[in-house]
Amino acid sequence: MLLQFFLGEGELSFKKEYKKEVLRILADKDIPFRFTNGEESFSFFVPLYRRRSLCSLLEEVGIPFEKKSITGLPRIIHSYRKRIGIPIGALIIGIMIWLSGRVIWCVNVEGNTTVSDGEIIELLEKLGCGVGDTYRDIDFDVLHNRFLMESENIAWIAVNMNGTHANVEVRETVNAQEKEDDDGFYNLIASEDGTVERIAATEGKPVVEIGDTVRKGELLVSGAITYKEIYNRYESAAGSVYASVLRSFSVSVPYEAEKKTYTGEKTVKRSLRIFKFNINLFTNSSNPYRFCDTITMYKQVYLFDTVALPVYVKTTEYREYGIEKEHLSEKEASERAMALYREELRRVVGDASLLKKTVTKEASEGEYIIRCEMRLLADIAKKAPLIISKEENQDNKETEKYDQNS
């Protein structure tokens, strides 16, 4: 019965006087059939793939007949042939059922704080462990090692399969400051030129004094400490050295400029991503506008709002704009320059304290310029590795043993 439904049957109607002759032809050609009787006619239902050859044979022997209904799946397909969404949906469901027990449906990431889920998922996909990949072919030990070789921010990773869901657990590497402390000893050097105002060293020995003028890269606090002028002891210098520094910047706004003006026209195109297959739901794939902003969004499909499916709806929106020439007055240019100046001022000052600043404004022939010079109180201490020779390192280890025994 199930085979009959998928293959379909075709109905042929005859007058009753041809019943015996039709039965003989069906028997000779070994054509399976079933029939129904009417008052003046009878009907045979034969497999749809045999109906055409049977009709040709009946026409040759001169038996009149009438083609009637089609049953089974072919009838359903024929009835909905103009509704393209139904066969596409049936195809999608069939593919998903076939692939459901073989491939990864979704990837969940846990244990990350600074590294984004997207970055981890993208690298796993590059290594062959993404949505749509056959997980039975993955050697997870090799995958873990390759991932750690590719990523500098992940120290440990484990991918565990729960059905068709890949659950990823990661541990991030320690931050740069912690790594420095573990790797060896450090000095503090000047990150920029300045005059020392205050020293707050918590580790190491300061080699500058208040009032000293230092240059960028000059040693401020040493991690090498001489003990009773006999031997050196090493540690990582830490703390802050505040200095009076000079910083400057300038911003400018031209009087002739170009600006974007949105026309209000937009085009939205959608496509489906099922596992690794992309299905476009539009016919024209070209960019419809000469100038436009492109916004792309991905939304995963959930079954009953709880079960994540390996189906994503990609929506791409094109917003058209035109390019217009814009002439600014001196007042308009100055207002825009002030907005840029405030933004740059916040960036340049940063964590420092502003002591003094001088601002000059200039309306030249083609642009409006704002220049700023500042004196700041800033922490200029920056860590730099302390280079120790092998002989000095050996002496340091022996000194540490001597101190412990004492």
Largest sheet: 5 strands, antiparallel
| Low-pLDDT stretches | 176-181
CATH fold-level label of the domain at 2-79:
Alpha-Beta Plaits
The best one-word shape is elongated
Using the coordinates above, name the CATH class of the domain at 2-79: Alpha Beta
Mean pLDDT: 84
Strand content: 35-45%
| Helix/strand class | alpha+beta
Oligomer type: single chain
Radius of gyration: 40 Å
Q: Please tally the helical runs, counting DSSP H or I stretches of 4 or more residues.
A: 10
What's the CATH H-level superfamily name of the domain at 2-79? mj0159-like
Bin the helical content: 25-40%
How many angstroms does the end-to-end distance come to? Answer: 96 Å
**So, CATH architecture of the domain at 2-79?**
2-Layer Sandwich
Number of strands: 22
Describe this protein's structure.
The chain is an alpha+beta fold. Among the domains are: 2-79, Alpha-Beta Plaits, CATH 3.30.70.1360; 106-172, Ubiquitin-like (UB roll) (Roll); 257-327, no CATH class. The protein is 29% helix and 44% strand. The protein has 10 helices and 22 strands. The longest helix is centred in the last third of the chain and has 20 residues, at 330-349. Mean pLDDT is 84; it is low at 176-181.
